[in-house]
Design goal:
The chain has about 600 residues and is α+β, with helices and mostly antiparallel strands. The chain contains 15 helices and 17 strands.
């Protein structure tokens, strides 16, 4: 940069120097020419005064030539011209070849006014000449003009020599003084410009420390102050924008709703962790890609397309996933951003996508609908039986000694079933309302399982089922309510007995694991489909409604069991294969 600036300043100084020197040259040449011309006219006027004092003998040719020889000794050429334009005599040896001079302006001026002068270039000698013409009136003759001519050859030589000396000396001064000054100035400016350049690079890299300002008072000092002010304001603006961006990013990334921003080029420019989780991807894998590359829901892609096409807001609901479908409320809104492109501002449209998981809400709605339908169904069956047999008895069956006892027994059984259903519903409502009271104390698992198995043996014997218990002797006790835990295990055993075909087997195991005791009730029954395994702990949910009506029960046992286990701080789950049997596991924290 030093050399570039040096040559630029040197070229500027050279052009300025040449312009000034050319002006000086023109002015000096004109002044010298004027001085030489003035000196030439003074010389000719001195000869003219002598000629007036000693007029030429025009009538005597020999005497005229002698006079011309004497007058020509002053270095001037003298020509005698008659009034008719004829050259009477000329001191030049080549006068016979000279053209007619009667029409020269100084000659005509001399005939008219008595004297004339001129400076012009001779067409034959090819150099500048000074002319002075004087009218002479000899006695008794027509007037004649004496023209004195002096060449300016010395003037041209002197002017050329002056120019050579002036240009040579000036170039030496330019090289010595101008080159040194230019070098010093260029180095000074280059150093300061390098500092400004380094400062601008620091600012571009994020370092906004101010640069020291030299108090020289020139434009670079003002530029340095302006850059410092710009850097300070830029730092403040960037800090504010960074804080705002960090806050917005933290808020968006911590949201449970999935958020994504799609630019005008139909690429994802931002996505939070929740959005990536919904799609089953990493957050970094979403950004920079087109929605069609990562989203498999046609309804969601259609909503994005509508917003990018110009629609302000789109609300819809989509279901995503195959194994575990999840429902999302989708809001797609149009956003506009001002962007500079090739020196012009252009408004570009994008889309903001928000996915709110409403799977639990839809599940609860489904559970509520199923609950109402199941309660209605479970209540209608015993009530219909009671009503039907009561009407039969009232219609005359009371007198039927053979059947009235059977009818009354059916009415009693259906009433008991209705009472059990009502009790289970009340118990479940108390548990879900958090009003279940537990008497927590250390409970021996072996005794708990033995009591439950003894009760289950009575129901298993008619079906010839084998019930086996596997419980280590050193198994630690659990902290819980013995009556409630027995209710849970008994419910699992009753289900195993009901859904295991005759001749099957049931195994009850218990083992310690990581501060808990895991109790497992395994059977070789009909099994549970994988799609139904997550819902069997819901109220009234039945895997096979037609098959379930064949067995006794309210459909609330597993729901009650789940709430009791969770109230103890434990967990219950199932593993099952259709036709291979089921394993129900419940873990209860061990007593300290």
């Amino acid at each position: 940069m030093d050399l570039r600036l040096f040559w630029k300043l040197g070229l500027a100084n050279l052009i300025l120097f040449l312009a000034v020197l050319l002006g000086v040259d023109l002015y000096a040449a004109r002044a010298l020419r004027n001085d030489y011309r003035h000196a030439g006219f003074e010389t000719l006027e001195a000869l003219a005064r002598i000629a007036r004092a000693q007029p030429p003998p025009v009538d005597d040719a020999a005497a005229l030539h002698a006079w011309l020889s004497v007058m020509a000794g002053g270095g001037a050429r003298i020509t005698v011209i008659a009034s008719d334009g004829r050259v009477l005599a000329d001191s030049a040896p080549d006068s016979e070849t000279m053209p007619d001079d009667a029409h020269d302006p100084e000659v005509q001026q001399a005939f008219l006014s008595g004297g004339g002068r001129a400076v012009r270039r001779s067409p034959t000698l090819h150099r500048d000449l000074v002319y002075l013409a004087l009218r002479q009136e000899p006695p008794g003759r027509e007037p004649v003009v004496l023209r004195f001519t002096l060449p300016l050859a010395h003037m041209d030589e002197a002017l050329a020599e002056f120019r050579r000396q002036m240009w040579g000396t000036s170039f030496l001064i330019l090289l010595a003084v101008g080159g040194g000054a230019t070098l010093l100035i260029s180095r000074s400016f280059s150093t300061r410009i390098r500092r400004l350049k380094a400062f601008s690079r620091r600012v571009a890299s994020g370092d906004f420390r101010p640069m020291p300002v030299e108090h020289t008072g020139d434009e670079l000092t003002g530029l340095a102050r302006a850059l410092n002010e710009t850097a300070a304001r830029l730092e403040e603006t960037i800090r504010s924008l960074t804080d705002e961006r960090n806050r917005s990013s933290a808020i968006l990334r911590s949201m449970v709703e999935g958020v994504a921003v799609i630019g005008a080029d139909e690429r994802i420019v931002f996505s939070n962790h929740a959005f990536a989780q919904i799609l089953g991807l990493e957050a970094a894998a979403c950004e920079g890609r087109r929605p069609v590359e990562v989203i498999r829901s046609s309804e969601l892609l259609a909503a994005i397309g509508q917003v990018l096409a110009g629609q302000e807001t789109v609300h819809t609901e989509v279901v995503m996933g195959t194994v575990r479908p999840r429902s999302f409320a989708v809001t797609a809104a149009r956003v506009e951003a001002l962007r500079g492109l090739e020196g012009r501002a252009e408004v570009q449209s994008g889309a903001v996508l928000v996915l709110h998981d409403i799977s639990e809400l839809r599940r609860l709605e489904r559970v509520r609908r199923d609950f109402v339908a199941n309660v209605s169904h479970e209540l209608r069956t015993p009530l219909t039986a009671i009503q039907g047999f009561a009407e039969t008895l009232l219609a005359g069956a009371l007198d039927d000694q053979e059947n009235r006892g059977r009818f009354l027994g059916i009415i009693r059984d259906q009433a008991k079933r209705l009472a059990r259903l009502t009790d289970d519903l009340l118990k479940l409502s108390l548990i879900e309302a958090g009003k279940l009271e537990l008497e927590l104390q250390p409970v021996g698992v072996a005794g708990l399982l033995r009591a439950c198995v003894e009760t289950a043996q009575l129901k298993a014997e008619p079906k010839q089922l084998t019930v086996r218990v596997e419980c280590p002797r050193d198994l630690p006790p659990v902290r819980g309510d013995a009556r409630r835990l027995q209710e849970v295990v008994q419910n699992l055993l009753d289900n195993a007995v009901q859904y295991t075909p005759a001749g099957g087997r049931i195994t009850v195991r218990a083992q310690a694991a990581d501060g808990t005791v895991v109790i497992t009730v395994a059977d070789s029954g009909i099994g549970i489909p994988r799609a139904d395994q997550e819902r069997i702990f819901e109220r009234f949910y039945r895997v096979d409604a037609a098959r379930s009506r064949e067995v006794d029960g309210t459909g609330l046992g597993l729901a009650i069991a789940r709430h009791i286990v969770e109230a103890h701080g434990g967990h219950i789950w199932v593993k099952s294969e259709v036709g291979q049997g089921s394993e129900f596991h419940l873990s209860i924290p061990a007593a300290n």
